[in-house]
Design a protein that fits this description.
- The protein is mainly α.
- It has one domain.
- Helix content is 73%, strand content 0%.
- It has 20 helices and no strands.
- The longest helix is centred in the C-terminal third of the chain and has 43 residues.
- It is globular, with a radius of gyration of 23 Å.
């Protein structure tokens, strides 16, 4: 089924590959990344109660790949840059249709997730004093709801979010969606110098980490995906070369390690040091390489196109939106002494609720966004009545009397 940019999932989106159809492997990658984000937030619930040595093993070894939550968001951003841009590169793409449909596609599931989170907070009281001081549960989970806080987070214009933590990334999805024409223009104008643009984008993300500018960190990651969209056919041709096929698995392993490189290097680079932040900035490049491999390398696609992975990909946006309110609620409900049970319950419960949310909220938002976009396009195409046309209509009505 073809999927336009304005109806594609807002986070870690998937879509067409131009004339060749849907890139199913990206669905699986999106689902895997969403599940890793769930594991990451469960680890934040567990962290105050874990032995420091156990935490070190989880975060300073390749096991961190299972808990690479923030890094997975970078994968989402590259995916969005790729597949939201792909339809815009096709002949006949309508910007008039794109904007209303895309904004509805972003905001409607967000509204639904916030109402869901608010209901949980109101139904199950939360006392932050029961949680360890300085913990994620105490400092990053809303314990009360006001209409103002709900509307503020629903705007997607805040820098931080307590009702549903993950909405911080949707803020950058919103900015990218609004700026898509600029991203596409840059990628097309620089098509013959795409490697230079990609290198500049990576340099920008590293600089963003060094100067602590979120815009510099995240927006260039979307650009990497857009550049990939413009050069997708060339990437496929390049990946088909026998010499390249032999190297791709090693490139994938290197990219996966670079994605969590800042954690692996903590043994020698202190947290917050210049080297640490520069390595952290390089995670955007790693995310782009992983997305490229999933898009053009057949063995990776086969692994990512299994039924469980595709199912995860289908519900991934819903899973991303609902899992944090569930983890927080279960954590408060069971109490700190049962943190391990909260994690065991929260993961399957999040998958179940995500499946329901997908059917009841996300799919209807697809239909409504498509309808809104089609309506705007039809209205834009309708010719305005002219003076002669108006006079002819009056004459016709007079003659009929």
């Amino acid at each position: 089924m073809r999927q336009d940019a304005d109806t594609a999932p807002a986070t870690a989106v998937t879509g067409d590959s131009g004339a060749t159809g849907r890139i199913a492997g990206l669905d699986g990658l999106r689902g895997l990344a969403a599940l890793i984000v769930v594991f990451y937030h469960c680890s934040l619930l567990a962290r105050p109660f874990l032995d420091p040595e156990a935490w070190t093993v989880l975060t300073r070894t390749p096991m961190k790949l299972l808990l690479a939550g923030t890094e997975s968001v970078l994968v989402f951003f590259v995916l969005s840059g790729l597949v939201v841009a792909l339809p815009a590169l096709r002949e006949g793409f309508s910007w008039i249709r794109y904007y209303p449909a895309r904004l509805l596609r972003l905001y409607l599931p967000v509204f639904g997730a916030l109402l869901f989170a608010a209901a949980l907070i109101l139904l199950i009281p939360r006392d932050p004093a029961t949680m360890p001081e300085g913990s994620w549960m105490r400092d990053a989970q809303a314990t009360t709801i006001t209409p103002g806080s709900l509307l503020s987070e629903a705007s997607l214009l805040r820098a931080s979010y307590d009702i549903d933590n993950v909405l911080w990334s949707l803020r950058w999805e919103l900015f990218f969606s609004l700026l898509l024409p600029l991203f596409v223009w840059i990628a097309l104008r620089s098509r013959h110098h795409s490697l230079v643009v990609a290198a500049l984008a990576v340099a920008a993300t590293i600089t963003g980490r060094l100067v602590e500018s979120d815009a510099l960190v995240y927006l260039p990651v979307f650009l990497l995906g857009t550049v990939m969209a413009v050069n997708l056919d060339a990437l496929r041709t390049y990946a088909a070369r026998p010499a390249v096929r032999r190297v791709v698995p090693y490139a994938g392993v290197a990219a996966a390690l670079l994605l969590i490189g800042t954690w692996l290097a903590r043994w020698v680079l202190p947290d917050g040091s210049i080297g640490d932040r520069a390595l952290w900035g390089s995670a955007g490049l790693a995310a782009a390489v992983l997305v490229a491999i999933a898009a053009v390398w057949a063995p990776a696609a086969r692994m990512l196109e299994t039924r469980p992975m595709l199912w995860l990909g289908r519900i991934s946006f819903s899973l991303y939106l609902v899992h944090v309110p569930i983890i927080g609620t279960v954590g408060y409900l069971l109490g700190v002494e049962h943190w391990w049970l909260a994690c065991l319950i929260a993961v399957p419960l999040s998958l179940l609720v995500a499946a329901v949310f997908y059917r009841s909220v996300e799919l209807p938002s697809h239909r409504l966004s498509r309808a809104a976009g089609d309506l705007c396009r039809r209205l834009a195409r309708r010719p305005a009545p002219t003076a002669d046309g108006g006079a002819a209509a009056v004459a016709t009505r007079s003659a009929s009397r």
